[in-house]
Design a protein that fits this description.
The protein has 559 residues and is α/β, with parallel strands linked by helices. The chain contains 17 helices and 27 strands.
């Protein structure tokens, strides 16, 4: 994939050619929003860039952002880039310890503090003496404010440029398997990935179709960074909306009426379970099967979810059960899976109408090369490939094979037509006492397809057989204290266990299903900020109980 223009070139062009076009729409409370045009974005970014340059930081200094998604996250990033520096974004749900680790490991020279829910708990992680600037919508602090700085600072003049090899950002991975790693992304890689995504989206939306997207998946992660921020900067006519809060999410969706919508498996499952809480699955299935009425019902369901205007919907971050994809498509939602990593700027694979069989993550995006190792590991060479892990040259060297392909750590299968199926993580494979490796992901997918289950993990290292832990659907959790409901759930889980085992090889069959005491969340450390399961954390929490479960011998157990 050739690259002649970098991300700042696109942005400056939009501000010059379409200055009055609304780019960002920010809720400010009470149902009110503020629209920000391209001219306003660039004016504020240029003023803050001039301020950053005036502070005398070394070229390429790391400037951090700790904020939920908001308009000024994007504007601040542009200011950092135009000033000649590198962005370090921190997940807005991180603990003080992780905030401190990222700031110190990256050598951050300044921190932008933005919209946050947990600032009192995070503030102790900011090293004493680190300069801080409060973005609009930030919690109350003593820091100098963005508005005050841009009001008194003249804008940076000219056409700020960066070289393709300049470091644009450090993206610290969400740490599902340990300490976060700083993924180095240069301007060439990010621009190529963003341009490739923009072309992919435009082709599927069609020329002339308005591009609207709700940005709510963390911008600190590469998925929303590339597919929302980067692609919208390249495209120029995409309007990016933001969510005000979790409580207003549905209203925010309905305000935006997105034509593009991306999410992660946990949220797709929660949306479905929200529908089932209002209408039993059997009744909905029956109504959808009635001609004409079925289309009306499906449209009503999508409108209730705020997804009735969506032309292209995507899922990433973890496998999505094939049955769930089919369910959404039956409603008329074009939901497709994609596959990518922070290390390739989330530019790797995506499916579509032509190559969209449920259970597969699609074919390589333009310019992406892929092959499988002898052990079945997926190896990727992407135009969005990262430059290495910050201050970890040994890990960088170990992550590539001799011909430059990146070792993803994922196991997969490829069809002759290029369709890729992810079958699990190499590090997640475990042996039971039967001596054969069990891949948990395919079994978890079968379990997660059940409408009663929100999440699951399969484990059982060294045990006579594997077991599963499940988190019940949100609408069921408050009701299982009732003996009748609990008995019904118990019986349904026994039938689920039988169904899963019938489809499994002998050494993969589960001994039991265990119901988790409480849902897994970011707050209790069982999910990463991108809502991936922290498997080792969950296994450590239940470790004292595992032997008792096996001794009890019950097929369904309650923690």
């Amino acid at each position: 994939m050739s690259q002649t223009r970098l991300i700042l070139d696109y942005v400056l062009e939009h501000a010059e050619q379409t200055p009055d076009r609304v780019y960002l729409t920010q809720p400010v409370g009470g149902g009110q929003v503020v629209d920000v045009t391209w001219a306003q974005v660039l004016d504020q970014a240029r003023r803050m860039a001039a301020h950053l340059q005036g502070r005398g930081f070394e070229p390429g200094s790391r400037i951090a952002i700790l904020s939920k998604n908001c308009a000024h996250f994007i504007i601040a990033e542009l200011a950092i880039w135009m000033a000649g520096h590198t962005t370090v974004a921190i997940f807005p749900t991180e603990t003080a310890d992780t905030v401190r680790y990222v700031l110190e490991h990256s050598g951050a020279s300044l921190l932008f503090v933005g919209k946050l829910d947990l600032w009192p708990q995070q503030a102790p992680g900011v090293p004493a003496g680190l300069p801080c600037i409060a973005l609009p919508l930030a919690p109350r602090t003593d820091f100098e404010t963005w508005d005050a700085i841009v009001a008194r600072t003249a804008p940076l003049q000219g056409h700020p440029q960066r070289a393709p090899e300049d470091l644009a950002m450090l993206i610290y991975t969400s740490g599902s398997t340990g300490q976060p790693k700083g993924v180095m992304v240069n301007f060439g890689a990010f621009s190529r990935a963003a341009s490739g995504v923009a072309k992919y989206i435009r082709k599927r939306l069609g020329e002339g179709t308005e591009s609207r997207i709700l940005s709510y998946l963390p911008l600190a992660h590469s998925m929303d960074r590339t597919w929302t921020e980067g692609a919208s900067m390249v495209e120029g006519d995409t309007r990016v909306f933001f969510a005000e809060s979790l409580d207003t999410f549905l209203q925010d969706l309905r305000r935006a009426r997105p034509t593009l919508f991306g999410s992660v498996p946990r949220l797709w499952l929660k949306f479905q379970q929200g529908v089932f809480a209002k209408m039993p699955p059997a009744k909905l299935d029956r109504l959808l099967g009635i001609p004409i009425l079925g289309r009306i019902v499906a449209r009503k369901v999508l409108k209730g979810l705020g997804l009735d205007a969506v032309i292209l919907a995507g899922s990433g971050s973890a496998p999505l059960p094939a049955e769930l994809i089919r369910w959404y498509r039956r409603l008329g939602l074009r939901l497709f899976e994609g596959y990518g990593m922070t290390e390739d700027n989330s530019y790797s694979h995506f499916s579509d109408d032509r190559c969209g069989e449920p259970g597969y993550v699609g074919v390589p995006l333009p310019g992406v090369e892929v092959k499988l190792s002898d052990a079945g590991e997926v190896l990727i060479k992407s135009p969005g490939q990262f430059s290495g892990y910050y201050r970890q040259p040994e890990l960088t060297a170990a992550s590539f094979i001799d011909d430059g392909f990146f070792r993803t750590g994922d196991l997969g299968e490829r069809r002759a037509d290029g369709m890729l199926k992810i079958t699990g993580r190499a590090k997640e494979l475990f042996k039971t006492a039967k001596g054969k490796y069990v891949a948990p992901a395919p079994i978890e997918n079968r379990i997660n397809a059940h409408p009663m289950v929100e999440q699951s993990i399969v484990s059982g290292v060294g045990q006579v057989a594997a077991y599963a832990i499940v988190v019940l659907a949100e609408h069921l959790r408050p009701r299982v204290g009732d003996a009748t409901v609990r008995a019904q759930v118990h019986g349904e889980l026994e039938r689920l266990l039988d169904s899963v085992n019938q489809a499994a090889a002998d050494y993969e069959r589960l001994r039991m299903i265990v119901v988790a005491r409480e849902p897994w969340s970011i707050e209790n450390g069982c999910l990463t900020p991108t809502m991936k399961i922290r498997r080792t954390r969950i296994e450590a929490v239940v470790a004292p109980q595992v032997e008792r479960w096996y001794d009890d011998g019950q097929r369904v157990q309650w923690t």
